[in-house]
Amino acid sequence: QVQLVESGGGLVQPGGSLTLSCVPSGSGFSFGAMGWYRQAPEKRRELVATITRGGNTNYADSVKGRFTISRDNTKNTVYLQMNSLKPEDTAVYYCNGFLSARSYWGQGTQVTVSS
Q1: Pair 104, 3: CB distance under 8 Å
Q2: What is the pLDDT of residues 50-62, one digit of tens each?
Q3: CB neighbours of 92 closer than 8 A, spacing ≥ 6?
Q4: How far apart are CA 58 and CA 67, in angstroms?
């Protein structure tokens, strides 16, 4: 059973930075597109950023210029570098990946931006 495991969330002050990581629980997988989504309380889950296996990226307008998605294909790991964090970035962040035409989700990691 393939599982995606996120890490790196936490509490940070406005203007601060965090880096999230997502890695499959096993080995030998070759994920296609991967991405990060987030869900704030009482809001729908929304796209944050995606990246193809070849490195093409896509960002939500709200995070452009502040967040950077990257991946290491040798480790099937995807990262989200978040800079200049704002209180409105507070949410549970979920990793997503496509493997053999199936979508997989992680359990989520909480990011709280507060002074």
Answers
A1: yes
A2: 999 999 999 999 9
A3: 38, 39, 40, 108, 109, 110, 111
A4: 11
